[in-house]
């Protein structure tokens, strides 16, 4: 593997939400580049299942895209806290689900998927939360049937690539191929 050498770091700005880094790098060919990147806390997206329904909060306005979008519950996760604890907090914050109503939590990707570009260095974790029958949200929400047509209908409405990735990964892991 070819690694670029860091010649110096001329900026390291840390905030609560991200770290902005400016570096001078040298490629394996000897070219010197000025490179900027942002490091963020990792993200967790939770796919909540209640009986035969997938639950999502009502669409929320996203300043970066300039409109309200339909998304699975999710958020940034601190490195010192277990992901299942984070999932319970996210479901409580976004949908008003009592943390004790999460009867089963299943991580879809134990190492997280890298989400990497100049302005996003993080990992994305996906988790499925099976809710108890009494786990009805107290916040406004939308629901979609957990069958092929309902999942496809939901996929058409999701504009968030990360939410779509979690939905498709879950779908891939739960759909069994027909017997030959």
Mind summarizing the main beta sheet? 7 strands, mixed
CATH topology of the largest domain, what is it called?
Nucleoside Triphosphate Pyrophosphohydrolase
Mean residue pLDDT: 91
SSE run: EEEEEEEEHEEEEHH
The count of domains is: 2
Helix content: 10-25%
Principal-axis shape equals elongated
Radius of gyration: 19 Å
Approximate strand percentage: 35-45%
Looking at how many chains there are and whether they match, the oligomeric state comes to single chain
- Structural class by SSE content: alpha+beta
Give me the count of strands: 12
Assigned CATH class of the largest domain: Alpha Beta
User: Which regions have little confidence, pLDDT < 50, spanning 5+ residues?
Assistant: none
For the terminal residues, how far apart are their CA atoms?
42 Å
Q: Determine the number of helices (DSSP H or I, runs of at least 4 residues).
A: 3
CATH architecture of the largest domain: Alpha-Beta Complex
- Tell me the CATH superfamily of the largest domain: Nucleoside Triphosphate Pyrophosphohydrolase
GO molecular function: hydrolase activity
Keywords: Hydrolase
Organism: Leptolyngbya iicbica LK
Protein name: NUDIX hydrolase
Textual characterization of the structure:
The strands form three sheets. Strands 4, 5, 8, 9, 10, 11 and 12 form a seven-stranded mixed beta sheet that branches. A three-stranded antiparallel beta sheet has the order 1-2-3, with no helix packed on it. The protein has helices at residues 83-95, 148-157, 161-174; strands at 5-14, 18-26, 32-40, 42-50, 53-57, 60-62, 67-69, 74-77, 102-107, 113-117, 120-131, 141-145. The protein is of the alpha+beta class and 180 residues long. Keywords: Hydrolase. This is NUDIX hydrolase. One of its GO terms (molecular function) is hydrolase activity.
């Amino acid at each position: 593997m070819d690694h670029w050498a860091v010649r110096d770091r001329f900026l390291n700005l840390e905030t609560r939400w991200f770290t902005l880094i400016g570096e001078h790098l040298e490629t394996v060919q000897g070219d010197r580049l000025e490179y900027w990147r942002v490091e963020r806390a990792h993200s967790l997206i939770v796919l909540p299942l209640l009986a035969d329904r997938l639950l999502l909060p009502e669409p929320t306005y996203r300043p970066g895209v300039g409109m309200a979008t339909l998304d699975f519950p999710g958020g940034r996760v601190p490195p010192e806290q277990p992901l299942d604890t984070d999932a319970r907090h996210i479901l409580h914050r976004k949908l008003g689900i009592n943390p004790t109503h999460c009867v089963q939590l299943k991580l879809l990707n134990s190492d997280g998927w890298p989400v990497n570009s100049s302005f996003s260095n993080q990992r994305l974790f996906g988790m499925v939360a099976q809710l108890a029958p009494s786990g009805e949200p107290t916040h406004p929400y939308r629901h979609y049937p957990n069958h092929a047509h309902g999942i496809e209908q939901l996929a058409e409405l999701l504009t968030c690539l990360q939410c779509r990735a979690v939905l498709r990964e879950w779908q891939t892991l739960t759909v069994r191929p027909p017997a030959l």
